[in-house]
User: What shape does this take?
Amino acid sequence: MRKHISGFSNPTVKYLRSLRDKKHRKRAGQFLVEGLRLLEDARASGRVPRQVVMAEGREEHELLSRLEGEVAAAGGEVITTTPDILSKITGKSNSQSVVGVFDEFDTALSALERDAAAIWLVAQDLRDPGNLGTMLRTGDAVGAGGLILIDDCADPFSAEAVRASMGAVFTLGLAQARWEEFLPWLRSGSGQLVAASLRDAVPYREAPYAAPCFILVGNESQGLPEAYEAECDLRVTMPMRGRADSLNAAVAGAVLAYEVFDALD
Assistant: This one.
């Protein structure tokens, strides 16, 4: 089904604009994805948006035509509107010429299959959506089973996190939990919990990694709470030869992920 919207006060426009806000996303259980590339990544991974909104007069594109067909076949809606209204929806003056609306995924720990992969990424209290998206992208690159977000992390369904993930939000498993929920889940089966640390740590290139390996990184400024580090099976340290006393959280996760990848390959 295709329809056209020409008014800024249209209820659909107001609803789509509201999805820029985390509170409204959680209430609706939906999120926005901007740009044909990300929409194609979603489609290729088996996720079709409920709605596609595009600027009128845009050039025809094979990928967009295929996406429209799959949205229609799934009972979704294709909307055309003016570039100004599309900018109003996204909050950007140079917005992408197509936007999709997706249902949020099941992010329960119970939806994960821990034996499906040798590597898993875990982030605790990660606040920057760019870092979160980067960790998703890293996880996809090393073939991780997923990213588990612990405590008060940034929203993985924000436009910033989705964009930074470069489509990995659609290809990687994703879960959200409190530490008190995560730890019993981890200990209920196989799994080695590894964190970068200065407490009783071994050099990260000499560590005895074991699958499935859960790589834990902490908050960008505070790192991991001491009590969380104490629960880790293995603590590793990375050399710092410059003036900086730590790596960016997402970078540290990537360095460890590739080291584990090589060790378990």
The mean pLDDT is 92. The chain has two domains: 2-103, 109-264.
